[in-house]
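Internal ticket #5521
Category: modeling
Description: The requester needs a full-assembly model to guide mutagenesis choices. All entity lines are attached below as received. Residue total reported by intake: 1027.
Assigned to: D.W.
Attached entities:
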Amino acid sequence: MMFTSRMIQLFAVVLGKDSERVTEALLREGVMQFINISEVESQRPNSLSAVKPRVSLTEISDLRKRVEGFLHTGGIIPAAPKETDLNNRIPVHIEKERNHLAQIASERESIRQRQRTIQQEILNIEDIRRQVELYGTGLSGVTLPAKHTFISMQTGKLPVSNVKQLEDELRDLPSANITLGRENDMAYHLLISMKRDSEQINKIIAKAGWTKVELPAEARSVKKNIFKEFSEKLKALTDEQKKLQIKVNELAKTDAKHFKETWVNLRVNELFYKIQTHFESSSRTVIFTGWLLSSKKEKLTELIKKTCQDRCYLEWNEAGSKDTIGDEIPVKLENPKIFAPFQMLVSNFGIPKYGTIDPTPFVMPLYLSMFGLMFADVGQGLILAILGVLGVYLLKKKGQKEGLYYLSWLIIWCGFSSIFFGALFGAFFGMGLFEPLWFDFHGIISGHSVGNSVINDVFDILSVTIYFGISVITLGLLFNWINIIRSGKWMELFFDKGGILGGWIYGGGIYIASFMIAHDYKGLPPGKTLFLLVGLPSLLLLFKEPYHYFAHRKDEPGKKFNPLIILNFLMEWLVELLEIFSGYLSNTLSFMRVAGLGIAHVCLMISFFTLADMTSGIASVLILILGNILVIALEGLTAGVQALRLNYYEFFTKFFHGTGKLFTPISLSSYK
Amino acid sequence: MAGQLSKYAFINAKLRARISKILSDDVFNQLAAAPSLDAALTLLRETPFAALEEIYSGTGDLKQAELELLKNEIEIYRNIRRYLHRNSIGLVDALLSRFEIDNLKNAIRIYFDRKIRKRPGDGGIHYILYDHIIHDIPIDIILNAENFDEIAGVCEGTPYSRIIRKYGHTVESEGSLFRMEIAFDHFYYHNLLAAIEKLDRPDRAMALRLAGVEIDLQNINWVIRFKNFYDLPLEAVLAAIVPGGFNLNSAIIDELYSAQNVTSVLGGFVKSKYPGLSALLSSQTPDITSRLGLVSRILEEIMKHEVRRILAGYPFTIGIILSYFALKRDELKKIRMILNAKQYGVQQERIESVI
């Protein structure tokens, strides 16, 4: 848990005839991250060639993505395959499935085409209705004459048998074709169209056998009727659009069962062939290699041997051994589930280098302590925890993104931390409802005597956070030393900025600062002590650059010693000293923000209470409620961000190398 | 006079937060790889562009969705304008006028097709903005107008009336809109540069630089059109280009219009000012169109480079606003491009090569 998990590399040789069964077994177990031997060219024997899958992996992947895309359009998210799906794996009929998809795509396209046509009709009607609303119809007696009238209205009769043809041909133009009545086999119509389209309109109506007739008296109330007509037509078209929309969505759902099964089979095959792309084959054997957790070694050995009936050769190489293939060792962070939100914070910064410390278990107490010190209140913490629980409940139910889910858990943890520190400081929604277990934060900020023997004023609160900062930085330095010792870089342990010399100077600096404070800032420790604490390590640092120069000179044979290099050494030394002194000082003082934000939190609550005191009744209660909401939202966010910042920049920078690559075994639940 | 910090502190924080919401290259790659338009729009469900999917699934009409995108883009400018100091508002107004000019150009194109080219309407009228942008322009009347004088008349009181009156007869006699469109572009950039001149000194240089790169892009787009569709003589081309470019002056455009080798023309300033883009110069370009296309791509990269430079520099300047607009424009352009490509079944590789 403290370090990244131990990895081991498997180099396996199995018979060609067993390779399918072995692939299935490896996929079922899902514990191995494969290495492409062909990519590590220098180590690939000439007698080996890549195993060619029976079906093209690209084709399977493409088809799987198409099916997935199709299911997504219907809001269906297919679930990862299960072991039974692997057992029931059947060959993929790519062509058949492609045709099936193409058939549905064409069906969908024809519905879309129909939607587009209807949409054009809707837009045409909306256009002409807008014109009528804006400028009127221009027919005296019907509406007032408008300044600009682009509407043309005409009444006429045509054979009933031609009405459908007329309606069809007018569909592409903004127009309203209103039936006024029928007489024998003739239909009387009022046609409203745009003047600009008169040429086309005239052709269409002539084709339909249109004969102009006088506007009947009953059409004098035409404006009202027109709008009714428009509304009815629009409603009918909109309803049809909705039906078509449902039809498209149903399209994905009707065949959902088949496509979900197809997707699962495709996915299983895709993963199966993906594993095989890492295989190399000779005439009768297949070779593969990859990383897995050391703890899985026994089980996998047993599984492969059982699958091959002992006809295999397995070679295990520990990470770091010279016999491993490839340089990169993947990193697996294994922490109890309770740490998941904090592991997310660590991974967000970077993946630790293989074999180094995984800071997750330490980030949890540090982050929560920082947050609690900045946002200490039992009541507000309770609200945070409830919000977090709500988030967890909703996100779990909806199967939302993992990040947001863990963020909700983080909020719950922060809520508990706030409650804990609130109890220590005796704060409940900014009020002192109970005796503080440690000291009265509110009392100190308000300037009251709190009767605590240790913490009495703001400076004492600032000191607490400084001590806290020193502890965090020291822990970071210790971790750095452990990482360096484990990697066996002894000179680095001594000379690194966060190494023994750096730590020595930091420790010396802390002692000197404490001495000065104890002597009312009027004196420094004796010269000899000063030299031992800061001078000596600083002088020793002077040897760092010359050591590097002479140690690495053999790597650059043409490089000759030049007297100017001495100047270079001196410059490097001075810059490094400057960095160490200013860096450690600012890192430590940076923790004062914890006190600063804690004080700001109390001050804000005091302000809201003062405002509430200036009013009475409901206004006073409202101010307190709004104040608490504001503080929870604003201060909660600020405290969360600042705690993260302190972890990332003051703690992680001392020891953390985010250069690792996450361990991604191929399993049935693989994302990619 | 307000200091730079007080003028831009709030908007800087706001826009940096918004910049972080701009779709990443990963999302664009996923969109390009989507098997269909429906699938691509489904991917947008989890982004601020979810409304596009809603509109498309309700209408089957991608242009309707694009119209919504345009309205949102205009709203972005209006929204940011509200948070600006009065000294910077003029510049955002000048930038906003681009939408009004483009909309007016579209309306005039529809009128031109119907009235002068005698082509039946293709439904373009439904994808025009009828809303007020900066001036009251009765788009309905323009679409239904009888002649350019009528259009100029209804645009009276706006700066566009003079341009329409001046070039209306030329357009009718030449049967081409390009002189009027160039005049609109010249007006837009003239207006933009005038607004930049009114900025405070620290902002001016930065805004001039970005506007200059944009002018370069506009000029090269015109040059491509001149070469492909009009084959104009060089003098006409040089007269048409917008002054104020940052990298491409008349001499370079003169060379680009006739030169066979883009490397020799652009090599000088690309290698000195943007060494990171030198690799693009070695691309193979068999004909003049591809060569000009390459220049356009280089200029787009230059724009991205300038934006990155601004974002990495002193934060309290007009640069953050202009950079945000440039990034947003690029994001929306990519979305439009990908969705249209998906509708027409363009191959994934081709889409990826242009995004």
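Resolution: model delivered.
Comment from assignee: Residues 85-199 of chain B form one domain.
Ticket closed.
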